[in-house]
Amino acid sequence: MERKVTFLVGLVAVLMVFACEKQTIMGSPEAESLQLEALRQEIDSLAAQYPCEDVTEWRFTAIGEKACGGPAGYIAYTTEMDTVAFLEKVATYTELQKAYNSKWDVVSDCMLLLPPSRIDCEDGKPKLVWDESLGDS
């Protein structure tokens, strides 16, 4: 009887180790980073589906979050798309990146990234433009 109990305790211990290893692999910074990257690529692909021909139909929004706070970048999108769904996806990405930064103690520069001044259309693609003269006045 004692052998059976010892065997069962050993089996449970081995199963717990494997379960913890699997959880560590699935919940690793690398795995979560790949998920974030896939969502970012999906967002970029959605925005890239539309040609930039009329700049008045384009807007931009902050995307992602730096570890110190503030946006990681900006992305252009057209008003021709389902903007509500697009902006919800961007917000989800931003919240996931914020959680990732906190969970994995990510370090980044703490430079404030100012929003672009405008959007230009170049070769059918939106281009975010930062006017250098903003701080000169």
TrEMBL record:
Source organism superkingdom: Bacteria
Name listed for the protein in its UniProt record: Uncharacterized protein
Species in which this protein is naturally found: Parapedobacter luteus
